Amino acid sequence: MMLTESISIERVKKSRLSTIDFSNLGFGNHISDHMLVADYKNKSWQEPKIVPFGDMPMSPAMLSLHYGQTIFEGMKAFKNTKGEIIIFRPQRHHQRMNKSLARMCMPELSEELFLQSLSALTEVDSDWIPTQEGSSLYLRPFVFAYEAKLGVKIADEYKFIIITSPVGPYFAKPVKLKVEEEYVRAAEGGTGFAKCAGNYGGAFYPTMLAQKQGFDQVLWTDAKEHKYIDESGAMNIMFVLNGKLVTPQLTTSLLDGVTRDSILTLSSSLGIEKEERKVSIAEIEEGFKKGTLTEAFGVGTAAVVSTVASISIHGKNYELPPVNEKSFQLRAKKKLHDIRLGIEPDVHGWNYIVK
Ligand code: COI
Asked: Rounded CA gap, 118 and 37, in Å?
């Protein structure tokens, strides 16, 4: 197996770094200078290479275009207060990536290949890691079927690529959610837990309809009864209900979010009891009516901790109370931030330091 030292690097002739306005990044608008590419053929992953970010040849018969074998991950790299590059919980992202790959009949990646690829690429493009408050280098590893063939089959050739993007906050302001009771993101037994591209493409249409009605995102409900809350597509959802941190339990139709897991893990040190269970729309509506629902927020790698401003349930819009510095969500967000930057000790071993 290859080692970081042996990953070949072809550097850009001219960096694009000076063209980037780091004070106004947005999300996903800029791609860093380099990318990492590894091919899968003859039943094994080949040596990865770092090359300038750019187009690549593809056949119109490439299988992923036709039958959707394509999955991805999303992670973040930061510079801590010592100036070291840290990647947040890459081992956990690796485990989830392999679950997505297995569900889609795609070849898994070793942890060694995954971590070394991330390390080498973040090191090469370390100047692209923003240091402004709320910013980070978003890492996007993905795998897709590359074989050219029209027959409906599991591909024999794949590409593993990592591209990276300096990003600011995902949402510019608190989000307005609509509980979705007609369309479905994922059904139990489907691919909802996998980070496959089709989950996102399938969400566009209902989300577009919700956005035309003035909402930002939909809050997906279970496919059988539209009674229980699943997640919000680009993020998991959490509530503070009756003074407890409440979030839908994981099923095969929800993404096992790394930020979700981190905040649940931190909850006891933040002095709140947690409940992972089925969460019905009815109890959220009742919480609004009784005033026992005090917070709602989305959690995800891109979204970090995103305040929910309002939730529309059966066509009625309910507003959340304003957030203040005592709010659980802001304390959780700060704790995560401080752990990542080395301001607080990393007792869970979440920060992977790139040597
Ligand atoms: C992430 O949080 O990393 C995601 O993948 C959500 C979205 C940007 C697709």
From this structure: 11
